[in-house]
Amino acid sequence: MKFGGYADKVAWVNLSDGNVEYKGIDENDAKKYIGGRGLGVKYVFDNGPEVDPLSPDNLMCVMLGPLTGTDVNMSGRLCVVTKSPLTGTVTDSHMGGWTAAKLKWAGFDGLVFKGKAENPVYAYVENGEVTLHDASDVWGKGVHETVKTMRERHGEECGVMSIGQAGENLVKFSSWVNADDRAAGRGGTGTVGGSKNLKAIVIKGDKKNKPQPANKEADKKARKTALAAIMAEENITSPKKGGLSVYGTNVLMNISESIGALPAKNSQFTAFGAENSEKISGEHVVNNILISNPTCHACPVACKKQVEVTEGPFKVRMESVEYEPAWSLGANCGNNDINAVAYIIDLANDLGMDAIEIGHVISIYMEASQRGYTNGDGNLEWGDTQGMADMVRKVAMREGVGDKLAEGPAGAAKAWGHPEISMDVKGQGIPAYDPRGLKGMGIGYATSNRGACHLRAYTPAAELGIMPFGSLKVDPLDWKGKGGLAKIFQDVHAVSDSFNICKFSAFAQGMDEYTAQFNGVTGLEYSTEEMLRCGERVYNLERHYNNLAGFGEGSDTLPKRFTDEPSTMPGSEGHVCELDKMLEEYYQERGWVNGVVPEEKLRELEIIE
To answer: What is d(CA 362, CA 371) in angstroms, rounded to the nearest whole number?
Structure first.
């Protein structure tokens, strides 16, 4: 394959026998599915949708896109693609930092793992080769200690991604976490690693191997245009004035609170109270515990906010307090202590758990306690920070009631006979946006191919008016048009995830900038329409996989709390989420039949012949 940006090399690692096979990327697959998320989904699809997520037969694909590790801004991401043990759907979960760039510089577009090692192992990647090594000495250790051990063994410059004790114990929402504390958090990708006895991936990549663009002139021009958009003071990404750059992702805490779209106490309320939300906001972090602003590879935005707590019971130095985990372990659990929030996020990362999902299961336990549902499993009060920290450890080790919570939000609520208190879609808990106050999130959650997710279709970019230069602003409380809006966002984000560049690039760039940068690096000549069609193809392939895996008509639902219980808080008071109306509009836009992709759509998109 002669396209720029690709190493044209994927390692297929059989953990059962230790054999490693190196393959190029099929040119037709690259043209149709790009790389990253798209190509990973194609591999998982070809492996078969009937596979048990925790069986040796499940694939775990660590994938890069053609822009990963290049000079393209915000190109420091990789994704883990697999069948999710939490949801039973295909899932992809992404991490930033420097690990992805180092993997590209080590000579790879991806690593695909299948089988199960007899004993714990880690994969070592250098100079286009992958070798397996004994990991018995770090099995049972946290992510931070594993990273430290691997860097002592292989060099401080190595990229390391690891599972923690939660992954080893098959907690269903375990993560892969890297040396930069960036996590492939959602969907239980770390659980799949644990099921395969794969503890870590260690990567030594040399920057001199950075891919060079196939069309240098076009690449330079495209990058200049994109960077100007990122740096523009009007944009949220601006290092000078942009809220994302100044306050990090947690700039959204007070904004969501103000419009009645911040779920609180397991979504019983759509706001936490202004005084409470302020105490866990990005502004509070910057003014009280911020110590530095580290970046990922090739990123001028620097949204990460490294913090340090030096006093009290929650002393910690960690990176960083992101919006969704701060909400999940904060407002969602009735907790307004930012020190505790930072400590528990760091604890979850070290144990290797999705910091969104762990807040969910704790909030379910808290509501079950509130309502007398726990059936002898003890109680946990809202805002009990020490109790929360203790519970995080118990979940990772599957101790006591933690064993129930380790099954995920739907599993925990079902165990107590009250599935209605789980705020999940297809088994995965919602993130930090209440769909009664941001209607687009409702259709986004319901139709996400990986379970409840804000990153499949980030409609708040339009509903909150933070699209490039205010180019698109819609009423967050109006359901009309949100089906079509979600479809557009889903297709665009499928493209950026397949490039494997940061989602936040979409706050400054559109498909024209994306396509120009792709063409410059690869040397191909896609039109914007052709590029967007690739995103639509990826999204439909994922949905087709899910249909074959048992998610048939009527699978796109929301918890009744959002559709039947009106908000009682200012900004969204009296509103519910009109999911049925939005679904009708969405399916029409997609050309689907009640959530199922018909054969003619699959042929139209060249998914089948």
So the answer is: 14
Selection from 465, 429, 474 nearest residue 450 by Cα: 429
Between CA 511 and CA 499 the distance in angstroms is 12
Task: Please provide the size of the chain in residues.
Answer: 609
Task: Quick: pLDDT tens for 300-329.
Answer: 999 999 999 999 999 999 988 999 999 999
Residue 470 has pLDDT above 60, yes or no: no
Contact between 361 and 303 (Cβ < 8 Å): no
CB 545 within 8 A of CB 37: no
* pLDDT tens readout for residues 114-160: 999 999 999 999 999 999 999 999 999 999 999 999 999 999 999 99
- By DSSP bridging, strand 60-63 and strand 20-23 are unpaired
Q: CATH classification of 444-557+578-604, choosing from 3.30.1330.40, 1.10.599.10, 3.40.50.20, 3.30.1380.10?
A: 1.10.599.10
Q: CB–CB of 185/159 below 8 Å?
A: no
Q: Which helix (H) or strand (E) holds 256?
A: helix 252-258
In this structure, are residues 222 and 520 in contact, taking their beta carbons and an 8 Å threshold? yes
**Beta carbons within 8 Å of 217's beta carbon, 6+ residues apart:** none
Tell me, letter by letter, the H, E, C secondary structure of 51-66.
CCCCCCCCCEEEECCC
Q: Where in the chain is the domain with CATH 1.10.569.10?
A: 248-429
The amino acid at residue 361 is V
The architecture of the domain spanning 10-209 is: 4-Layer Sandwich (3.60)
Rounded Cα distance between 5 and 35, Å, is 10
Q: Can you spell out the DSSP letters for 571-587?
A: TTTT----HHHHHHHHH
Q: What's domain 248-429's architecture? A: Orthogonal Bundle (1.10)
CA distances from residue 194 to 163, 355, 401, 463, 510 in whole angstroms, order as listed: 7, 18, 21, 39, 38
Are β-strands 159-162 and 176-178 bridged in parallel, bridged antiparallel, or unpaired? Answer: antiparallel
Using only C-alpha atoms, the chain has a radius of gyration, in whole angstroms, of: 22
Confirm if 307 and 321 have CB atoms less than 8 A apart.
yes
Q: How distant, in Å, are the alpha carbons of 88, 134, 351, 424, 538 from that of 542? A: 12, 35, 30, 19, 6
Q: Map tokens 């804000």 to a residue.
A: 454
Task: Check whether the bond before 277 is cis (ω within 30° of 0).
Answer: no
Residues in contact with 310: Cβ distance below 8 Å, sequence separation at least 6, in sequence order: none
Per-residue pLDDT, averaged over 82-107, amounts to 98
Token couple for 526: 């896609």
Report the percent of the chain where pLDDT is more than 70: 99
Q: Which amino acid is at 548?
A: L
What is the DSSP annotation of 302-324? ----EEEE-SSTT-EEES---HH
Q: Are 353 and 188 in contact (CB under 8 A)?
A: no
Domain boundaries for CATH 1.10.599.10 within the chain: 444-557+578-604
Instruction: Give residues with Cβ within 8 angstroms of 369, minimum separation 6.
Output: 378, 379, 380, 381
The count of C-alpha atoms lying within 13 angstroms of the C-alpha of 178, restricted to the half-sphere facing its C-beta, is: 29
